[in-house]
């Protein structure tokens, strides 16, 4: 009886602890998650504009509220009050449902993300997590896939060719990089022995998986940028080609929902990366060795959101630093680089894990083998196709244009020229020779 009255330790959370909360605690948790995500979105928009402005030697929002913090709220109110336009050729029912299909899964995925250990909330002992399940990570991937339907249906129902092309681009991109993202998580499952988010966090109490599974961490980090359609992978929003992407025809609050879904998805993939690779809510840099209370109570919430904001800063940094990739190069990188590398790494991790558990090989040889695999992985990752232009036959001369047609410039001898264009040269004389005046 004495032991049963003692508070649970921070790492004693198990799947049996979920589903025991009173209904009002569940409602409070749900409301807090919704409120946190909305406020985090407003902050992230302000933060992105401020950081990019700093990188570009501008000021950024600084008028509405202290340091411009209310600028995002003002923009949201402005969007909500704008005229709501529905194109005449649009499928109205699907056009209205698509933004909801995009934003609702973004909120639902946070239901299995652990924010901290067990705490006392209004006199009730409860984990800082809405719920958990044995396949929680697969639940996140499945719910996130539903958001693709919102993007595809939004582009298709608009009745616009540009929106349709943007929706197809976005769906192809998200599906392709979702494969690489899922494969990157297999190594985590092998080491944690579970797909439950709370148990994966508990398995990283001593050593983060981002350190011992660095290739998986790198693959996931690249895939999560492609999954969220963020720069330099924001190809569905290529303004010069597709105007504004799948949401070209949207306005007012429906456009704001797509905008909200994008930023919540950024927070979702960042929170999942924190949970699976950076120890979740555990204190960073092992500072809990100095004071064990850093991993108890509400301190872990601070560590968790600190790691999430670090990932979001990387998103912002990439947007302000890198240009947009070409679409064929981007898709080839996902299918020809990330996915094969992830498959090879899974085989290597499974082999190493089996050997380690059986204890049939010396640890020194095991570390040497890991080093060789890392070198091979990097060689595969950064290997580029050889230039085979020397083996190709020269391109045939273009046919002469038909009479009255628009003149077509001739192709260079030997095919298209790669690399920089020939430098232009101008005559140094500032006077125009006689006979050349117009």
TrEMBL record:
Signal peptide (residue range): none
GO cellular component, one term: plasma membrane
Domain of life of the organism encoding this protein: Bacteria
Protein EC: 7.1.1.-
TM annotation in the entry: 23-47, 93-115, 135-156, 177-195, 207-226, 255-278, 298-318, 338-357, 363-383
UniProt entry tagged with the keyword Transmembrane helix: yes
Its membrane topology: Multi-pass membrane protein
Main location as per UniProt: membrane
Catalysis performed (reactions): a quinone + NADH + 5 H(+)(in) = a quinol + NAD(+) + 4 H(+)(out)
Family: Belongs to the complex I subunit 1 family.
Name of the protein this chain belongs to: NADH-quinone oxidoreductase subunit H
Species assigned in the record: Nocardioides lianchengensis
């Amino acid at each position: 009886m004495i032991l049963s009255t003692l508070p649970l330790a921070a790492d004693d959370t198990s799947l049996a602890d979920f589903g025991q909360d009173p209904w009002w605690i569940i409602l409070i948790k749900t409301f807090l998650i919704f409120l946190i995500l909305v406020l985090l979105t407003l902050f992230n928009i302000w933060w992105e504009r401020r950081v990019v402005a700093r990188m570009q030697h501008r000021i950024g929002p600084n008028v509405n509220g202290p340091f411009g913090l209310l600028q995002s709220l003002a923009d949201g109110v402005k969007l909500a009050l704008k005229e709501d336009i529905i194109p005449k050729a649009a499928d109205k029912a699907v056009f209205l449902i698509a933004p909801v299909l995009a934003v609702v899964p973004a909120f639902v995925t946070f239901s299995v993300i652990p924010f901290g250990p067990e705490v006392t909330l209004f006199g009730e002992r409860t984990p800082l997590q809405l719920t958990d399940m044995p396949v929680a990570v697969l639940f996140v991937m499945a719910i996130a896939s539903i958001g693709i339907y919102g993007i595809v249906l939004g582009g298709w129902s608009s009745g616009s060719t540009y929106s349709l092309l943007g929706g197809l681009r976005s769906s192809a991109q998200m599906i392709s990089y979702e494969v690489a993202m899922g494969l990157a998580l297999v190594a985590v499952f092998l080491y944690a022995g579970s797909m439950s988010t709370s148990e994966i966090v508990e398995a990283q109490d001593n050593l983060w998986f981002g350190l011992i599974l660095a290739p998986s961490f790198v693959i996931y980090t690249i895939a999560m940028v492609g999954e969220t359609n963020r720069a330099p992978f924001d190809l569905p929003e290529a303004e010069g080609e597709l105007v504004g992407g799948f949401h070209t025809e949207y306005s007012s609050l429906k456009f704001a929902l797509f905008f909200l879904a994008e930023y919540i998805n950024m927070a979702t993939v960042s929170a999942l990366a924190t949970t699976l690779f950076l120890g979740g809510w555990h204190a960073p840099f092992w500072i809990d060795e100095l004071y064990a209370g850093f991993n108890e109570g509400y301190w872990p919430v601070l560590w968790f959101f600190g790691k999430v904001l670090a990932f979001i800063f990387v998103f912002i940094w990439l947007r302000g630093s890198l240009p947009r990739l070409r679409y064929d190069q981007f898709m080839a990188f996902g299918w020809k680089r990330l996915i094969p590398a992830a498959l090879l790494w899974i085989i290597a991790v499974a082999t190493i894990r089996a050997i380690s558990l059986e204890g049939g090989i010396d640890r020194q040889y095991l570390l040497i083998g890991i080093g060789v695999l890392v070198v091979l992985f990097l060689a595969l990752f950064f290997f580029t196709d050889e230039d085979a232009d020397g083996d190709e036959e020269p391109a045939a001369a273009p046919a002469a244009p038909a009479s009255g047609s628009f003149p077509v410039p001739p192709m260079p001898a030997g095919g298209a020229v790669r690399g920089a264009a020939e430098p232009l040269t101008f005559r140094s004389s500032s006077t125009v020779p006689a006979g050349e005046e117009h």
